[in-house]
Every structure is written in structure tokens, then in C-alpha cells.
Design brief:
By secondary structure, the protein is an alpha+beta fold. It contains 3 helices and 9 strands; from the N terminus they run βββαβββαβαββ. It has a 7-stranded mixed beta sheet with strand order 1-4-5-6-7-9-8, with helices on both faces. A two-stranded antiparallel ribbon has the order 2-3. A hairpin with a 4-residue loop joins β5 (89-99) and β6. The termini are far apart.
């Protein structure tokens, strides 16, 4: 294959290619959130479980993500937008935004085309983001996943991210019932 294995900056003219990267998520497992609440005390624990049926989510680029990536690529927002290409076309991208108040780099998306997964492209992109975070003196990288996106959870864990919180109402008041709560992740750099 004719890989440009080193991540490079995403170009503004490549933004339409984001929608062409097949970001389908397939998972048979999820992290079940156990919640216990008593007066003012709340506790959560995570337990690996099998999904009732295999998750196949097209994971399309939504308008908010497309706008955020455009802002970063255009230099309006501080952050990093990288890609890895094959034959002149991006097949993997990473976008992350600097959060100055928290001195963190927030991962917005890591997307590797379905046909090119398990070849180290996501790892190369995330390592480049970690280097960028070190260079810009960020104290941590942060990310979010859904509890049913177990491939993303396993990927972040492999690279040293730790669970940092749970948002049980990010998308609906029934996220826990739907087994789709949002997990917050952190990779401390200092």
C-alpha cells in the first residue's frame, strides 16, 4: 500500500472528505453503568457486559463535528486536525480542540475508515496528538465515548486513558436505560 504513514495537517479543501470516511462502529459488548444514589451520595461502577444484539452504528459526521473541525483547520479555534492519506485521499483523521481554561486537549473525533482499521492509523494519529499536547504544555488529553462503543473504549485504554467521569443524561434522560451513557476519559501528561 502507498501509505503516507505520518499524520499531517488536514487541509481545508479536504473537509468534505470527512463524510466519506466510513466510521461505522461495530460492537458486541458495552460497559454497564451501575448507579447507587442515597441522599447526597452517589456512586457509579462499570461492568463489561454483552449487548443484547450486535451494535452497528454508522457513526456519521454530524454538523457540530464538521463545524468544529472547520474552525480548527481554518485557525479560528486552537487545536489540531490531522489526517493520514492513501493515494491522495484521507482515510483516517483526528480532531482535537484546546481547552485553555482547563489546559487540556479535548479529542473531538478519531475516525479511521472501516476498510483500513487495525493497521495502526488511529494509534499514529493519537500519538501525534499526545506529542502536540506535550509541546503546547497541556496537562492532559480528554475524550468522550459512549458506553456501547467498546472498540473506542478499548483503544483509549490501550493508550493509557483512564475513566474520569460519567454523564448519564448527555443525550436523553434515559441514557442509562438505553445502555448509552457517556464516559469521560483522561490521559494525564504531567
Amino acid at each position: 500500500m502507498n501509505w503516507l504513514m505520518f499524520p499531517r495537517a488536514l487541509k481545508i479543501e479536504e473537509l468534505p472528505a470527512l463524510a466519506e470516511i466510513d466510521g461505522t462502529v461495530e460492537s458486541t459488548q458495552y460497559l454497564h453503568v451501575n448507579r447507587a444514589v442515597e441522599q447526597f451520595a452517589a456512586a457509579w461502577s462499570l461492568e463489561l457486559r454483552n449487548l443484547r444484539e450486535k451494535l452497528i452504528d454508522p457513526n456519521r459526521v454530524n454538523d457540530d463535528l464538521a463545524f468544529s473541525v472547520k474552525q480548527i483547520v481554518s485557525g479560528i479555534e486552537e487545536g489540531i486536525a490531522l489526517c493520514i492519506e492513501l493515494n491522495g485521499q484521507p482515510v483516517a483523521i483526528l480532531a482535537a480542540e484546546v481547552r485553555p481554561a482547563a489546559k487540556t486537549l479535548q479529542l473531538l473525533d478519531i475516525r479511521v475508515d472501516y476498510d483500513f482499521r487495525r493497521q495502526g492509523l488511529g494509534t499514529a494519529l493519537l500519538c501525534a496528538a499526545i506529542n502536540h499536547a506535550h509541546e503546547t504544555e497541556c496537562r492532559a488529553l480528554t475524550a468522550e465515548t459512549r458506553t456501547d462503543n467498546f472498540p473506542a473504549i478499548a483503544f483509549l485504554r490501550k493508550l493509557g486513558f483512564e475513566p474520569a467521569g460519567i454523564d448519564t443524561h448527555r443525550h436523553t434522560n434515559h441514557d442509562l436505560v438505553r445502555e448509552r451513557a457517556t464516559l469521560l476519559w483522561c490521559l494525564a501528561l504531567d
